[in-house]
Write a structure and sequence with these properties.
Elements lengths: L7 E7 L6 H5 L10 E3 L3 E8 L2 E9 L7 E7 L6 H14 L7 H6 L4 H9 L11 H10 L5 H15 L2 E4 L2 E4 L4 H6 L2 H6 L4 H15 L14 H9 L6 H12 L10 H11 L7 H8 L6 H13 L5 H5 L1
Antiparallel strand pairs: 1-5, 2-3, 3-4, 4-5, 6-7
Helix pairs in contact: 5-9, 5-11, 10-11, 12-14
Length: 317
């Protein structure tokens, strides 16, 4: 079909082994099928590329040691090769396709607990949001409420303010742009269930991004993680916990460890402290042994906990 008439493109994405797509996408299984969700076989999400909306349908067509993804991009507008290339890059980033986890496995081999967990979770990579703004948005909404409630609120906002894509008789929603969120009123976000304070934080940050006073994507260029955290914490409504979650989820900084997160701290205590309650400082102290991989190690603990994985080293403590 001539390039200017294509609305359906397929890309093969080569991934750095080992990579277990099903395991890596597991945490996305509770998503909304109209927004982003892994259904046990394929992952679907609406992407915004070159001003166009594309439904990405992603599935594994390889093995853990020879991994490949097949991504199908469908739009209601003509797609070009440039669109496909840009969408390919986004999906590669979302699934961390080019992350080499072998150096991580080598770095933690002297930690009996983490070494055993990494063996049982071999090929696990942490998914990321397509943009840093989305990660920041999610993290602000999650402040001081349960994840289940936060997910409900996030979906309400996306469906209220996200652009709509219709594909094969189904309706999908794209994550709202900062420009769209900057125009949202605090009252309209309040009607979605957000507190007035969180609504104010989100619209305020979105307005600064829309006005080009803040460039979250530029933070990817920063060498030191602390520089990223300091810049994020300078934004109204962003504290250390929110900044650290944003850095991991949206900027893929695996050298950041959000020790103030109660869920993560619970799993550190479960696997390393015989369930004893620990402080964030104690959790950070334990994480230091993982060096620049502390963020990825923390993610392995979370997934291991959710999957109820038991280790011999853990039982010995």
């Amino acid at each position: 079909m001539p390039e200017h008439k294509r609305t359906h493109l397929i890309q093969t994405i080569d991934c750095t082994p080992p990579f277990d797509f099903a395991l890596s996408a597991y945490i996305l299984a509770d998503g909304d099928p109209q927004i982003a969700k892994y259904d046990g076989t394929v992952y679907r999400q609406v992407l915004r590329v070159g001003g166009k909306l594309l439904l990405a349908t992603v599935a594994s067509v390889g093995m853990i040691d020879s991994p490949q993804l097949r991504a199908t991009f469908t739009s209601d507008r003509p797609l070009t090769d440039h669109d496909a290339s840009a969408a390919h890059a986004v999906i590669s980033s979302v699934f961390n396709a080019h992350l080499d986890v072998k150096p991580f496995y080598h770095a933690i081999q002297n930690d009996p607990v983490m070494a055993e967990l990494s063996g049982k979770l071999r090929g696990l990579k942490n998914p990321a949001t397509p943009t840093a703004f989305q990660a920041l948005f999610d993290s602000i909404i999650e402040q001081q409420i349960s994840l289940n409630v936060a997910h409900v609120l996030q979906r309400r906002v996306i469906k209220a303010f996200g652009d709509v894509l219709a594909v094969d008789g189904s309706t999908y929603y794209a994550f709202p742009t900062p420009e769209r969120m900057a125009l949202a009123s605090v009252d309209s976000l309040r009607r979605c269930g957000l507190s007035r304070r969180k609504a104010d934080y989100i619209t305020g940050i979105a307005a600064r991004i829309a006005a080009q006073a803040v460039d979250l994507e530029r933070l990817r260029r920063y060498g030191e993680a602390q520089m990223i955290l300091d810049r994020l914490c300078s934004l109204r409504g962003v504290g250390v916990w929110t900044a650290e979650l944003t850095a991991i989820r949206g900027l893929n900084r695996l050298d950041v460890f959000p020790a103030d997160d109660l869920g993560l701290r619970r799993w550190v205590a479960h696997y390393y402290c015989s369930e004893r309650t620990i402080t964030s400082a104690q959790a950070r102290g334990i994480a230091e042994q993982w060096g620049k991989w502390k963020g990825l190690a923390g993610y392995y603990l979370v997934v291991a906990g959710l999957l109820k994985i038991v280790t011999k080293a853990q039982n010995a403590t």
